[in-house]
Amino acid sequence: MRFDFHVHSYFSKDSNADLDDILQYASRNGLDGFAICDHDSMEGGIECVKRAKEIGSEQIVIPGLEVTSSKGHILVLGVKELIAPGLSPEETIKKAHEQGAVVIIPHPFKLTSHGIGYVEGLDADAVEVLNSRCLTDGPNNKARKAAESLGFPQVGGSDAHEAQMVGRCYADIGVSERNVGAVLGAIREGKTRAGGRKTPAMFVVKQFFAGQKKKIGKRLGMRS
Question: pTM above the 0.70 mark?
Answer without folding.
Answer: yes
